[in-house]
Amino acid sequence: MKYQSQSIAKLYFIAAIGLFVGQILFGVTLGLQYVIGDFLFPEIPFNVARMVHTNLLIVWLLFGFMGSAYYLVPEESERELYAPWLAKLMFWIFLIAGALTILGYLMVPYATLAEITMNDLLPTMGREFLEQPTITKIGIVIVALAFLFNIGMTILTGRKTVISLVLLTGLIGLAVFFLFSFYNPDNVVMDKYFWWFVVHLWVEGVWELIMAAMLAYVLIKVTGVDREVIEKWLYIIIAMALISGLIGTGHHFFWIGAPDYWQWLGSIFSAIEPIPFFMMTLFAFNVVNKRRRDHPNKAAVLWALGTAVMAFLGAGVWGFLHTLAPVNFYTHGTQITAAHGHMAFYGAYVMVILTMISYSMPLMRGKQAGNARAQVIEMWSFWLMTVAMVFITLFLTGAGILQVYLQRYSDTPLGFMATQDKLEIFYWAREGAGVIFLIGLFLYIYSFFAKGEDVVMPEAAVAS
Amino acid sequence: MRETFTKGMARNIYYGGGVFFFLVLIGLTVDTVRGLPKTDNSQNLTEEVAAGKRLWEINNCIGCHTLLGEGAYFAPELGNVYTRFGESTDAIKGFIMSRPKDGIPGRRSMPQFNFTPDELEEIAQFLKYVDGIKVARDWPPNKEG
Fold this sequence. Notes:
- The structure holds two protein chains of two kinds.
- Chain A has helices at residues 8-35, 46-77, 84-107, 110-116, 134-156, 162-178, 188-223, 227-248, 261-272, 274-289, 298-321, 325-331, 335-364, 372-409, 416-422, 424-447.
- By secondary structure, chain A is mainly alpha-helical.
- The relative contact order of chain A is 0.09.
- Chain B is built from five helices and two strands; from the N terminus they run ααββααα.
- Chain B has a two-stranded antiparallel ribbon with strand order 1-2.
- The N and C termini of chain B lie far apart (48 Å).
- The interface between A and B is large, with 79 and 76 residues.
- Chain B: Residues 47-131 form the Cytochrome c domain.
- Chain B: It comes from Cocleimonas flava.
- Chain B: The chain crosses the membrane at residues 12-30.
């Protein structure tokens, strides 16, 4: 760590991991509700637990992105953060606002929360992933603006690198597209169409820029490969992400009342969407193979390679599986979608943040890398969480295929609930995999506290 | 990557491709929004339906159900529930009203929301309106949703 202000990232990362634990606890709860329908009913009904699960994910990923930016940008810009105090202030504001929102979900009925927060003045609540009260959404915008100002000023007054500029573009996009969450027309087709301007243009658009920049940064650090090479890869990956992903939004417009041409455009362009993710895989392995140094932080290298592979599988392969309109006609809104969602979010965004944390956390604690035992434990947690997620995805895919057949494809279709009863075995198996994931997560946290002999960095590897 | 393919070329593809396809998306969006009145059932978008949508939102219905395939996958699709329930808003209202307060032992159950008769009517009208949206290929594949 070269600049003092980089250590602000530590706050953000600790909060991110804490919220991550909450997210998974609620995930395991939801999995149980799938098989024991009245579990925690009516105290914590499914919709509340799900909202907590998905909103905690979004909030902790945002903490992770912001923390990563606060770590990465000063070093790339070769100067201290423009306003460290602002970053600390925004941390507490965001944490308190986030915690109050989650408590609101859990303590009072959602309709009461809408009333307390005066949703009527500007109704934005009650849409998937955008359930936050309007006041929280405004808070998110304020935090995002302060964050962008801080990061932007640091970049503009310092050294400008491709990585920091791409990261900044992605973060600006994140803030700009979030503004669509305030647009909530009565017309359901319009509502759905523009809802995707937040959701799709985030996860299949600007977030890919953020992810690619973070991955490129860590790869430069752990491999010592020439910046020119890495920047060229970065440009071409994000070029493909935007070329495929922007019109690829169309794969969400198949069945919401939008014109028929989206069936073609959405299918063709989203069929290209796996390419940037595949290039990320090639990129990571290629660069690691050409490494000029063996960085003592083996765990970080594992996370970096892991995210490249899992993002391709989850976002690329599982996305393509059901993205063509004739296939999606049958699979839309089934457990296939859930399967894809889980592995894509884990593989792309969870893992890239854990990569960044894995690389930077030891440095912020005054070491080049975690001690040998801590790294072994961290790598065990990598495998437990990653393999568990693969099985969650496979079981949900099994459930989804059977669901599609029984409810939509067969000549004698069953009703929704009758079909769900027949999927029980898959749901139990998924719950088992979920518990393994939780164990992996606890092991991950333990790795930060594991004692052992320090790993020494070879002198030659310390440079740049 | 080969030396003949320079970083400058990669950068130009990124800026050029990004801006071009963003403009294409805006163009297609304008075209889509202009064409929507043909399919979006906006002629039946009454005050009552709008109030129903608000109730749909503030009770977080999307947290369990899908609507035109989007939402959670815990409870049935409701974009075509009007059709599935024999085109009867009374059947929809009856179902919502009859949910037991403490759930059903061992089973999934919808919460009891204690809606007033007016609210029930608004929700039913909202679901009827959504059912009237002209979706490509009449998705979902059958009435089971």
